[in-house]
Amino acid sequence: MERRTLLGAGLGAVGWWTAGAMPAGAMPAGGRLRERDLAVARGLFSAGEYGRLRQALPALGARARETQETGPVGAGRAAQVWVLASQLAVKDAALEEAGAFAARAAAAAARSGDPVLLAAAARAAATPLRRTGRADQALQLLAQAHDQLDAVRRPGLAVLDVSGMVALSAAYTAAQARMPSAAREFADRAEQSTARLTHTLAGARVPAGELSPAQCVLYRVGIHRELGDVDKALAYAVRLDPAVLSTPERRARAATDTARALLAAGDVPAAFDQLQRVERAAPQEARRPSVRALIADVAARRPDLPGVRAFTRRTAPPLRPTT
């Protein structure tokens, strides 16, 4: 896809890029990407500050395009930008754009030669595939990425971390594809990677990655709900302490997945309580299209719930200016 289409007409037509002032600490449009730039952008995503990240992405993307041409290290940094852009597009249900960014991430990751980044790009690509009815294709992509990571001799912390996260994504994808054996197998692999990672991290003073025992429990909630075993999904939800999840985005995800399971079980008041937790964890998560659909479901089933109408109005997405 042409760059003009990806960063210009395609996104501008749906108003995905947000006009306005850059957030404090955002990077200028020129120059090459630095690790600090990536850390700032990842921090905005993890905090659920999607509006600020949308404002920063045009400049970040311009720097990614420039840096991508400087060699493997620059390509690796660019790949991380495109993965992040794809994840943000998914949050906004802009699935075509998410797929385009994931393809750009895969190309940059291939140039970097880093198996961790190749796996991250595969995870990014799998999500829009899964959400557009191509779960089988997504699962194949994730299985290949997992096999490549398994082939790494003496895997370090980063490989173990992303290997477990790929396995969790594959488990959830297999559950959506109604492949229970594959879903359970990949979930078990993720827990094995978690155990290895926890053992390796013991006493080490290094930043934690995405993979953790709590992350595995969180995914189990969604996996078993997709498999139709709502009781088991809720049993995992009870075990999950959101406070141990490392970011507001993850805590909001835990409440969202629990709300889905509760709605499937017919417990609308408890689901509404979870959706209010989504807003408390990360207010912009409650304005995502998929979460708004859950809120609408609650309001339709139980319009008498105290506060549901005010909550529905409060979490309505802000009107975007027309151009």
Q: What's this, in brief?
A:
The model is unreliable at 1-28 (pLDDT under 50).
Describe this structure in words.
By secondary structure, the chain is mainly α. It has a domain at 9-132. The protein contains 15 helices and no strands. The radius of gyration is 20 Å and the shape is globular.
Features:
mainly alpha, globular, single chain, 323 residues, 0% strand
Query: Radius of gyration over alpha carbons?
Result: 20 Å
- Sheet/helix structural class: mainly alpha
Largest sheet: none
Count every beta strand, where a strand is a DSSP E run of 2 or more residues: 0
Shape verdict: globular
SSE topology sketch:
Layout: H1 3-13, H2 35-46, H3 50-68, H4 72-91, H5 95-112, H6 115-131, H7 135-150, H8 157-176, H9 180-201, H10 213-226, H11 230-239, H12 248-265, H13 268-281, H14 289-301, H15 308-314
Helix pairs in contact: 2-3, 2-4, 3-4, 4-5, 4-6, 5-6, 6-7, 6-8, 7-8, 8-9, 8-10, 9-10, 10-11, 10-12, 11-12, 12-13, 13-14, 14-15
